[in-house]
Specification:
With 174 residues, the protein is mainly β. A hairpin with a 2-residue loop joins strand 5 and strand 6.
């Protein structure tokens, strides 16, 4: 897979078509466990076909032991699946939980962190905890931990190297 292709910028790989099932265009799909809930809630699934990221909609989905059997609307030709097997399935980044954002933060960038428009400090590192990923930030000369959860993240701008949080009142006083 060529993740540097511009078409991949707005998409996250969440699953793979492992093999064809039957003669009606159904296929076995293995979903990355980190994205399973997003996959199940998705409105559209995207696949690369002839250099383009195309949306597909499910016409049926059945749970099996190691994934799902799925059939997508408008795919009837086995040749579509055979072009590249396994074939990756993507979701638009707006339909994927924050795990996608967490994995994309490059600690070496030294991103600047803000609470709204108020400067907090520099991101030092990310640490995995049992409940969630934590951003470790140099705040006024001491390290503070901020959970990387959707409710606390206002914006992450990789181009500007900025993370904007929306922290509850009193959070920094703890």
């Amino acid at each position: 897979m060529n993740d540097t292709h511009p078409a991949f910028k707005d998409y996250v790989e969440v699953a793979q078509i492992i093999k064809l099932k039957g003669f009606d265009g159904s296929c076995n799909v293995h979903v990355d466990e980190d994205y399973e809930q997003d996959f199940l809630k998705a409105r559209a699934y995207f696949m690369m076909y002839k250099g383009n990221m195309l949306p597909f909609f499910k016409s049926k989905r059945k749970t099996i032991q190691d994934g799902y059997v799925m059939k997508f609307d408008s795919i009837t030709e086995k040749e579509f699946y055979k072009e590249v097997m396994p074939r990756s399935i993507y979701l638009h980044k707006d339909e994927v939980a924050e795990i996608f954002v967490e994995q994309e933060i490059d600690e070496s960038q030294r991103m600047q962190c803000f609470n709204g428009d108020d400067p907090l400090g520099t991101l030092l590192r990310m640490e995995e905890y049992p409940q969630q990923t934590m951003a470790i930030i140099d705040y006024k000369g001491k390290e503070i931990l901020i959970p990387m959860v959707e409710d606390l993240i206002e914006e992450i701008d990789h181009d500007k190297q900025v993370i904007k949080f929306k922290l509850p009142e009193g959070f920094l006083d703890l």
